[in-house]
Design brief:
Arylsulfatase, C-terminal domain; 2 domains; four-stranded antiparallel beta sheet; two-stranded antiparallel ribbon; 28% helix; globular
Length: 199
Amino acid sequence: MVAYVDKLVGRVVDTLQEAGLQEQTLVIFIGDNGTNRAITSMLGDVPIKGGKGKTTDNGTHVPCILNWPGQIKPGVHEGLVDLTDFLPTFADLVGQPLPDHIPFDGTSLLPVLKGTPGPRREWIYCWYERDGKRKQASRHARTVQHKLYSTGDLYDVLTDPQEQSPLPADDPQLLPVRSKLQGVLDEMRQSEWQKTIAQ
């Protein structure tokens, strides 16, 4: 499957090169969820079980590759990226402001892509309802290092990516991150989008 996808992406890139359009074209390759749970892949010497349909990193941390020769410097971004970031990024690329009267959750990736100063995404909010089971919906907010679920469970996803050991609820050193992420959960819970979904 990976070899076939690589071949197809290669065809797109080859076509752009042949047409002389590669330096005028931003190519984006991105996944929408983790690998099927029945598949186990290897990351170096470490087996990684598929996590499609789960809210752990193996279900939500997906490839995101952007290529634009002459415009984007090659490199790796270790920060957060959310699909909502693409609309403001596209608007920035064409120099078009987004409407003021519509709320947008995304943060433009242009400063990251250009390696220039600018706002960076501090958190991601995720709401996941599996198989239409609204009462079993999962909500969490995360930073690069921490993830807080609406249940109150907080994880250090850098040291515990499979979320096996919730961090102590009474740890005073974790109070600032817990408070910040709870604020995100509360804010998103009150949003018009959530009110609409709840109806």
